[in-house]
Amino acid sequence: MAVNISSTDSLKKLGKITKKSVEESNSKLVKDIPLDEIVPNPDNTKLFTMENVEGLVESIKSIGFNGAIDVYRLPNGKYQISSGHRRYAAVKRLEWKTIPCIIMEPEDDILVRKKLVESNINTRVLSPIELARSIQYYELILREENFKGDINTRLGEIFSISRTKVSKLKSLLKLADDIQELAKAKNFPYEAFEDAVNFPADKQKQLAERLKKHLEKNPTSEIDTPVVNMYVGEIKNELQIEKERKEREKLEQAVQEHKELIEEKLAEKLAEKIKQAEESEDELEPEDVDLLEPSSIVDSLPKLEEQDRLPADFGAEEDSYEEVRDVPIAMENAKEPETQLYAYTDRMEEEITRNKFNKATKEALIKKLNKLIKILESM
Fold first, then answer.
1. Where are the alpha helices (DSSP H) in the chain?
2. Residue 208: phi, psi to the nearest 5?
3. Integer Cα distance of 43 and 126 in angstroms
4. Which candidate, 47, 132, 123, 110, places its Cα nearest to that of 84?
5. Contact 190, 169 (CB under 8 A)
6. Of 6, 14, 99, 294, which has the most beta carbons under 10 Å away?
């Protein structure tokens, strides 16, 4: 059955309010206002959770309604709540028709917003996410007032916490929404998420999912610092592996591009020499067409970055193909000329296959290749 309390006298008769609270309320001009004439402050739901309203309902049923809520009269005749949103929600569930209110004098918008925050931080134990949102909200007010001092220091004074805690709580708002949802728990270890703030969005989401699964598997436990450290550490390792993989791919791509540039320039050089030989009707000798001869080509190419971190399988090639670049000299001086000459002829075959030379050029190359093969066979 709905209970309609229309005055503080009625409350007193029901034994639901103490004499002291009645006297205090009367001294502040308490008035019973119909619930349908009262509206919540729209900013309240952005900052504070309406948790445990059911518990408050049971408390009112058991020991009565204590005190009165603070309201401002609006220009349209209604009243906006300054303090007492949870009590207002509780009596609505009890289907009361009115609620005791203290009507406050109209104030400017900034003061109204300040009181909204201050009334909650002074009367309730806020969760980390509620504190973080309230701090951000109050910071905007200070900036509107052109506050000139250190913002975090001033916020620390208002919220009775250290400047460092202010900074860490503000960082909480940089985390994924799913993590912020978990931060509604009063003992949420927000300070353990310092590294997670810098995670990309997808990794923050993964972190939230792992924390939720942890709670599902351990329904009687809570998210504490060791648990957070474990999952944050996992994701940090995954990010490091991914970073190293991308760096490797980048270096491999750079090495490949480097090789392709060398091959392109060597092909141009080769075509030029063959053209000169055709024009002069001279026969090309092995030493005339050294595909890997000009060190200036290598020197002119873009340098690879972070060469000291090249993957191991690329570490052996400094100027590329160093082992076969001076084949004519190697044929006379090297300890294993046969091996180097094979490498040289194989390289020539690759060039002939890869490049689209004209008929005369290709014939000249094949002639040179055959000549080299004969030298090889005679060794």
1. 8-13, 19-27, 44-47, 53-63, 85-93, 109-123, 128-144, 151-159, 163-172, 177-182, 201-217, 225-280, 295-300, 327-333, 337-354, 359-378
2. -60, -40
3. 16
4. 123
5. yes
6. 99
Q: How far are the Cα atoms of 92, 293, 325 from residue 269, in angstroms, in the given order?
A: 89, 10, 14
Assigned domain for 9 exists: yes
> How far from each other are the two terminal CA atoms of the chain, in whole angstroms?
113
The range of the structural domain enclosing residue 340 comes to: 239-378
Lowest-pLDDT range of 90-94, 225-229, 245-249: 245-249
In terms of average pLDDT, the best of 213-222, 252-261, 325-334 is 213-222
Tokens of 91: 């009596």
b/e 328-338 (16+ beta carbons within 10 angstroms → b): eebbeeeeebe
Q: Which residue has the tokens 């005369």?
A: 360
The domain boundary, picked from 107, 141, 157, lies at: 107
Nearest to 291 by CA among 343, 225, 215, 214: 343
Query: How many residues does this entry show for the chain?
Result: 379
Count of structural domains within the chain: 2
CATH of the domain at 99: 3.90.1530.10
Cα angle vertex 65, ends 62, 70, to 5°? 155
Per-residue model confidence as pLDDT tens digits over 286-306: 555 555 444 454 455 444 444
Kindly give, in sequence order, each residue whose CB lies less than 8 Å from that of residue 283, ignoring residues fewer than 6 positions away.
Answer: 277, 367
Contact call for residues 241 and 200 (beta carbons, < 8 A): no
Question: What contacts 143, CB < 8 A, 6 or more positions away?
Answer: 151
Does the pLDDT at position 102 exceed 70?
Answer: yes
SS3 of residue 379 by DSSP:
coil
What is the per-residue pLDDT across 33-79, written as a single tens digit (0 to 9) for each? Answer: 999 999 999 999 889 888 778 889 999 998 888 889 999 999 898 99
Residue 101 tokens, joined: 């209110």
Instruction: Report whether pLDDT(285) > 80.
Output: no
For the chain, the C-alpha Rg in angstroms (whole number) is 40
Mean pLDDT across 316-344 = 42
